[in-house]
Design brief:
alpha+beta, 9 helices, globular, 4-stranded mixed beta sheet, 222 residues
Length: 222
């Protein structure tokens, strides 16, 4: 077995995508084992690999890590993406928890029933433009540095860029009112490891389609 982290999930974004982003930003090569049918998930459940019977699961450093936030915390700590002290870590945690809330709205859009899609879309765009992005614009203004926390790249920067790019898939001009977020996006996208991850052919997953959801449902529905 190689020393590379091994990611167990379906071949799509879902709750594994923030993990892919963090590993890529840290310059860590990783392997993926895709669940393609219900039996693939059942096998992991039966062999004791999944603590709570759920994926995402990441094998690394002799452990089988589950729960997205726990996995992200471990990777961020290991690869110095978690601030220099407890205060910085507290800020990173606060920002990232807000990002997870917005991320949840974005990833749940595609699974909404047809009669709920318009309402969900309006709600998630309103939250992005009027609750979440104004906060991060203000953080950048008040902090006055290239990064959200301290003066070095953290998981907060990585995960904010991921969410900005996701939001732009739904509304390309969503940053029109946020000049500091526009320059943040350009700056973080140009960090070599992230720039590489944004190139075609990387392990970054494309926008989730209804076909992806249908495939995932066949795997995860009990």
């Amino acid at each position: 077995m190689s020393g590379k982290p091994k990611l167990h999930y379906f071949n799509g974004r879902g709750r594994m995508e923030p993990i892919r982003w963090l590993l890529a930003a840290a310059g860590v090569e990783f392997e993926e084992s895709y669940l393609e049918k219900k039996e693939d998930l059942t096998k992991l459940q039966k062999d004791g690999s999944l603590l709570f019977q759920q994926v995402p699961m990441v094998e690394m450093d002799g452990m089988k890590l589950v729960q997205t936030r726990a996995i992200a915390n471990y990777i961020s700590t290991k690869y110095n993406l978690y601030g220099k002290d407890m205060k910085e870590r507290a800020l990173i945690d606060m920002y990232v928890e807000g990002m997870f809330d917005l991320n949840e709205l974005l990833i749940m859009y595609v699974i909404q029933p047809a009669d709920k899609k318009e309402q969900h879309f309006a709600n998630m765009m309103d939250k992005a433009e009027n609750r979440y992005f104004p906060v991060f614009e203000k953080v950048l203004k008040d902090h006055g540095k290239d990064f959200l926390v301290g003066n070095q790249l953290s998981r907060a920067d990585v995960q904010l860029l991921e969410i900005i790019l996701m939001a732009e898939e739904y509304k390309p001009d969503i940053l029109a009112k946020f000049p500091l977020l526009q320059s943040f996006k350009a700056r973080i996208s140009n960090i070599p490891t992230i720039k590489k991850f944004l190139q075609p052919g990387s392990q970054r997953k494309p926008r989730t389609t209804e076909e992806d959801v249908a495939r995932a449902m066949k795997i995860f529905r009990s």
